[in-house]
Amino acid sequence: MCTRPHPAARKAAERFLAANPGDPATYGTVAELEARAVSLLGQVTELPSPNGYVTSGGTEANIQAIRAARNLAETDNPQVVAPESAHFSVQKATNVLGVDVEFVPTDDDDRADPDATRAAVCEDTVLVIAVAGTTEYGRVDPIPALGEIAHTAGARLHVDAAWGGFALPFTGHDWSFADAPVDTMTIDPHKLGQAPVPAGGLLTRDAETMDALAVDTPYLETRSQASLTGTRSGAGVAGAVAAMEALWPAGYREETERVLAEARWFAGELDARGYDVVAPELPLVAVDLPERLFDALREEGWRVSRTRRGEARVVLMPHVTRETLRAFLDDCDRIA
Amino acid sequence: MCTRPHPAARKAAERFLAANPGDPATYGTVAELEARAVSLLGQVTELPSPNGYVTSGGTEANIQAIRAARNLAETDNPQVVAPESAHFSVQKATNVLGVDVEFVPTDDDDRADPDATRAAVCEDTVLVIAVAGTTEYGRVDPIPALGEIAHTAGARLHVDAAWGGFALPFTGHDWSFADAPVDTMTIDPHKLGQAPVPAGGLLTRDAETMDALAVDTPYLETRSQASLTGTRSGAGVAGAVAAMEALWPAGYREETERVLAEARWFAGELDARGYDVVAPELPLVAVDLPERLFDALREEGWRVSRTRRGEARVVLMPHVTRETLRAFLDDCDRIA
């Protein structure tokens, strides 16, 4: 789900290969760039005064969102409720943090089910997780409804838009801080944002969330550090800013419209060949291919992976063109 | 504690700005490079068949070492024992992981005290942490003695050589997997290893430690993932390999000898001016400067920071030359 970085982003990243945003008093320029990155991410996600930071990726941001909810809650047995479609980093995060997690079945269209979510929350629930662009099917959960369920239960709402975040502003989905009572959000510039790896993002509506993550930092000339990792990538921060400045909003809009059109065309072509296709809503096509064909395509070098139900996942990142898709279809036809 | 990357490392990093070692089946070249990085780190730390991976830095590696000890232990109340000189990431890690930590006072020379450590371990102790090159004073703890205490108590031994690891092979200290019963070690190529940020390292003596960190990874074409973060930096991995191939062992030896000589010269110059200097053992000089002078030096742009006791910390990373140190001393003389 990563892509070729935007040329301006690559250039910016190369200038900051030795800078550490984890030590802002020493690396002042990159600290300013990080503030700029957070501000730009606030524009993308419709949060006028954003708090947050540039993470190593979606996993770190998801860990931190759950950690903040755990640290801010009163309960001794914190529990997180997430759809079964949530990224596997949620499982990792709850293992790391010692938090219980209840995975709720999704509906027939692979979206979080509000009724099942309501039934799963309890007095120990500290966080409900919603996904805006699932890893397997590119689905967007009913985020406003999940937010109401979370807040009614005294829990927080986290939206994982790690992959979908830079496409969603140009679709009709309700997903942003303006659309729903979102407390924290994961959104990764290094995926559809076309920044170089590693550049993820954690955004929070309030400053208290960052305080809940902070630990003291002796021998740095700053008071505290709220990130999960210590040393962080200056290249990622600088690259993220350069990519967003180059592409937000017109470039991302154009790219989203292009890849969405390609996804629909590609899904139609697969359907016409008799394969079961999951109708795409974001630039990701899941298609039921025979196992032998899937294996042969991997061997040909096609970077497709598999959903848990066994469909092939084709992610139409910005570097994917009609020509690439045609070559893939040609290989399908030849091998099948 | 970061430095200008070695030119070969920078070049290698630039080639892999879009590659993700977190998805080895898709990014095969960088996965091979990561295996090479771990093998080279094994040479540096005297571990013939190393397990481990390239982390985002020392903080991630320390979190993971504590997480593995927690996950492998039987107790419901896991406790970690660390010297008070341990890096602040230990505090962060225990907060993240929900593990108790007991910080043990250091001796008069700022090293972990074996007697105090022995008194602090209990039946819930899962890990004893030793530091090989403390952040504040560059001290190396009595690692063989701490290893014996840990193993006698049924706990594991973790060595944090994040900063010192690439200098220690050329000193007389006992610190490596060959010198002591070390279970896990943190060693960061992006510090004295001259790799670009982010490239840290976690090494483990046995494969079970990595298993204790693994979570399932649906929709990746690999079975599991043991890293803390998900997407990781291909640039960091490629840069680390290039730096180690260029510099291990002769280049690191030469650099260590040069900066150690500079540190001793610099400490002598400060001492001659009447300032209290902590005698350097690794390329780090702590010196008691008047507060006004410290603040003025920061304002002049000198990237010095402070120990918890208030000394100025000057870290002699590979980019620091005699000329730089002379300019610093000149500024001290002018301002004082």
Walk me through the structure.
- The structure is a homodimer of 336-residue chains.
- The first copy, chain A, is 39% helix and 16% strand.
- Chain A is of the alpha/beta class.
- Chain A has 2 domains: 241 residues, Aspartate Aminotransferase, domain 2; 86 residues, Aspartate Aminotransferase, domain 1, CATH 3.90.1150.10.
- In chain A, the strands form 3 sheets. Chain A has a 7-stranded mixed β-sheet, with helices on both faces. In chain A, strands 10-11-13-12 form a 4-stranded antiparallel β-sheet, with helices on one face. The first copy, chain A, has a two-stranded antiparallel ribbon with strand order 8-9.
- In chain A, strand 10 and strand 11 form a beta hairpin.
- In chain A, helix 9 packs parallel to helix 11.
- The longest helix of chain A has 23 residues.
- The radius of gyration of chain A is 20 Å and the shape is globular.
- The model of chain A has no long low-confidence stretch (mean pLDDT 94).
- At the A-B interface, helix 1, helix 3, helix 4, strand 8 and helix 8 of A face helix 1, helix 3, helix 4, strand 8 and helix 8 of B.
Sheet of most strands of chain A: 7 strands, mixed
| Poorly predicted regions of chain A | none
Helix content of chain A: 25-40%
Order of helices and strands of chain A: HHEHEHEHEHEEEHEEHHEEHEEH
Spatial strand order of the main sheet of chain A: 1-7-6-5-4-2-3
pLDDT averaged residue by residue of chain A: 94
Structural class computed from helices and strand pairing of chain A: alpha/beta
Q: How many helix segments of chain A? A: 11
